Amino acid sequence: MSKVDDFRLRLGDKEYIPIMQGGMGVDISSSELALAVCKEGGIGHISDAMAPYVSDRKFNTKIQNSKQKQFKEFANSLDKSKVKWDYERSYEGTFKHVDSTMKEKSGDGAIYVNTMEKLTMGNPEETLRARMIAQMDAGVDGITLSAGLHKGSLSLIADQPRFNDVKLGIIVSSVRALKIFLRSGKKVNRAPDYVIVEGPLAGGHLGFGPDDWHKYDLKTIVEEVITFLKDQELDIPVIPAGGVFTGTDAANYLEMGVGAVQVATRFTIADECGLPAPVKQIYAQAEEEEIEVNLSSPTGYPMRMLKSSPSLSSNIRPNCEALGYLLDRNGNCAYHQAWDNAGVDEKGRKLPIREKMCICYHFMKYNTYTCGHNVYRLKDTTLTKPDGSFFIPSAAHIFNDYRFSVDHEIALPSAADVESAENAKALVKIGTNGNGGRKGAKADSSEEADSKKSDSGETAAA
Question: pLDDT tens digits, residue range 358-383?
Fold first, then answer.
């Protein structure tokens, strides 16, 4: 029986273990997670979602804070047309995040950045260009274009020295979307180095309609993409994503002729993952009936998440002066109108808003429990500790389970793994006088910028 380790992904002159860890924001796909996957010989993604905030948190910069101060006069207005991220702030936050990651890189794998077109920042073309240039300048191995068709993205960086050096890929959910991207690439004589095909069981935003996403399946779409590329005589690796939960799932796709698989859900409870420890426990104990696909995202895309997400019952005031990552070029965001139309209680405070959420604030605070459909199976991948909590495995353990497992078996962490991890945590606690945490983590330097309260009851309602 085949296993993932029987195959290799070749991109250019390099070969990788054909496992790509997906890019989850905000900093859920942390540098530590991507680096661990890279060390094992796979491809690890970090996300460029809200990179200025990630920079502030990791490096004590004041990028969001300075933006809030510049645009503070618009704090009590829903007209955000003049509230925009600029090239310099976008570049600085992205460069620092990517550069620090690349400087820690080791092993035979690679580090890519998941780069979202829908992260419009009130200034779509300039900020997207700034982010991609920063990624290339920081030495990233590859850029995966996501959350959009990216019809003009390649033209934004066609004049850059690394345009033909860095690996460039696109995430699509249909042959139609791939055709659109390939046409745009021809204008700058640049084909993608790989194509990630994301199916309807993926986590977070889905590339399908809100009413028909369940009518599709990943295997069929992958077969259609492979056939299309062969008909076009294009030798581009196809990488399925969304619902690849076991090494056998992955090996079955590799036997179909794909180049690799992209996986994410299993890594949400990895020790190196950026989710806070309590949220990892929520993911690990999730049941299938707790999962839903809704339209709460202001992007317009349907999104899969846990029903218990605090973001689904919030009345936080729009705070685009500090945040504003989803503002369009005219300063609009679907959450603004929902907030403005929301009713108030007897004290004049905004009632919880359920139709849309302030995605910037809640992603930053890890209040939106986006997840793949198979999140409810996470409890079967680890051990329950005596206190009833779930053991958090290492990224290396998860990676190698994918790599070597057969017959849909999942290698549980051993008792020795648990003991070793607990001893390591004890040593960290002693070495930091009780103030343990991920390397580089610190207090949220911009919290004052994005959690100020107004007189209208701007609080996160449980």
Answer: 999 999 999 999 999 999 999 999 99
Strands lying side by side in the sheet with 291-294: 204-205, 303-306, 291-294
Measured CA to CA, the distance from residue 350 to residue 327 in angstroms comes to 22
End-to-end CA distance of the chain: 49
Residues 6+ apart with CB under 8 A from 336: 78, 80, 318
State the amino acid at position 16 in one-letter form.
Y
CATH number, domain with residue 37: 3.20.20.70
Can the peptide bond before residue 26 be classed as cis, meaning omega within 30 degrees of 0? yes
Q: Are the CB atoms for 20 and 262 separated by under 8 Å?
A: yes
Taking alpha carbons only, the member of 354, 386, 331, 446 closest to residue 64 is: 446
Q: Is 57 part of any domain?
A: yes
Residue position matching structure tokens 């299938």: 288
What is the domain count for the chain? 1
The one-letter amino acid code at 175 reads V
In a domain, 88, yes or no: yes
- Phi and psi at 269, nearest 5°, equal -105, 15
409 within a domain of the structure (yes/no): yes
Q: Tokens 């004052």 identify what position?
A: 448
Rounded to the nearest integer, the mean pLDDT of the chain is 91
Specify whether the CB–CB gap between 196 and 170 falls below 8 A. yes
Q: What is the pLDDT of residues 101-159, one digit of tens each?
A: 999 999 999 999 999 999 999 999 999 999 999 999 999 999 999 999 999 999 999 99
Closest CA to 366 of 305, 321, 318: 305
Average pLDDT score over residue span 223-234: 98
On the question of pLDDT at 171 being above 70, the answer is yes
Average pLDDT over residues 316-337: 94
Interval 385-443: pLDDT, tens? 999 999 999 999 999 999 999 999 999 998 777 777 777 666 655 655 544 443 333 33
Q: Would 134 be classed as within a structural domain?
A: yes
- Looking only at the bridges linking them, the beta strands covering 43-47 and 110-116 are parallel
Which pLDDT score is estimated for 1?
83
CA distance 52 to 49: 9
Where do the H-state alpha helices sit in 87-238? 87-103, 124-137, 153-156, 175-186, 218-231
Confidence tier at 76 by pLDDT (50, 70, 90):
confident
Neighbours of 409 (CB within 10 A): 12
Range of the domain at 401: 4-276+392-414
Q: Rounded to an integer, what distance in angstroms lies between the CA atom of residue 352 and that of residue 262?
A: 36
